[in-house]
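ingest -> validate -> predict -> emit
validate: passed (alphabet ok, no gaps, 420 aa)
predict: started
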Amino acid sequence: MSTTNRVVFTEEMKKTHTILVPMMLPIHFKFLQRILEMEGYKIDVLTGQGQELIDTGLKYTHNDTCYPAQLTIGQLMQAALSGKYDTDRIALLLMQTGGGCRASNYVSLLRKALKQAHMEHIPVLSFNLLGLEKNPGFTLSKDLIHRMAVGVLYGDVLMDLYNQTLPYEIHSGDCDALVEALVEELCDKFKRHEAFKDKDIVRETRDILQRFSEIEIREEERIRVGIVGEIYVKFAPLGNNNLEAFLRSEGAEVVVPGLMDFVLYTIDAGIEDNKLYGTGFIKRFVSEYLYRRVIRLQNNIIDQYADYPRFKAPAHFEETKGQAAEIVHVGTKMGEGWLLTGEMVELINSGVNNIVCTQPFGCLPNHIVGRGMMRKIKEIYPEANIVPIDYDASATQVNQENRLKLMLSSARSQANKKPL
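emit:
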């Protein structure tokens, strides 16, 4: 179905329809769901897993489609076909960056899948900041974008502190309980339109840091393992076979760069395009405005870590970009582009030499800036212990976990060789 005869999501549908969203980040999407609900939308974040979901994705796409498309479309189609929802009162949402990636085609693939299932009457929404496929009933105002950006930042902080604390907690369940409590408290403040201003963000960040610092922990050292890769399989438990949980079960501390860095990377691309090619002056102007706003918010949050030495602060985006430039040109922006390479270098420079690079099937840009950069990275940083793990519908979890165990074994051997 072409975009010219697509089903438009109307203002009336906003009142009657539930929007189904495939889940990517467990903590972040709780914030995004509540913020969208504050705008009057009915949102249901899908958490389905299992082989049936993968089979549904393969049935309604094909086995040459990139793995994240198979999973997200499979999750949405499984929900639409489940009988749980009135198909005359749902809409399906996918996120698009509009870049040179197959992800830009997910919406068209989903419409094709709906047509195949004789459900083409279901509206498909594109969540993007480029003005693609406008819908009267689903609009992103400047204030909404700001609130969602703040929600992403809070999600990054909670995810970071959770990962730094969970492996060491003395009382099992303390971290999970604190995250749930903080999400609820912040969402309640969202309803009152609090926690969004600069001073509010600093105050709330300090409260989050303080409360995580009060969790009792064991004083022990663990192997720290960074996770990078294509954005979906990097973050989504469905996409990476619960990679974080597996690494923790093997005694590792997981380090995952935040989602906001990817947002900044996409904004920064509009600035770099103008510098390199002299095109998109208006886009550069808008990008620079957004960049300054978001960078200020992110830096304010990172700066609060200084008063809590128990926690390692995330890197500033400008630092990651500068370190990426050692390896690859920052004009490289297909897929995760220079950011993926930069995150590997930044992790190594921060003492995290052990890195899992998640590689989904069908993502050529990711393979180039991920696996393709490893040789150069190891030439500069010989201590780097990087393992690429392929994720696709036919890959076996046993093989993935065996490769991870070998990486961890090598990491422990290197740790044992360090002088006391």
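The longest strand covers residues 223-229.
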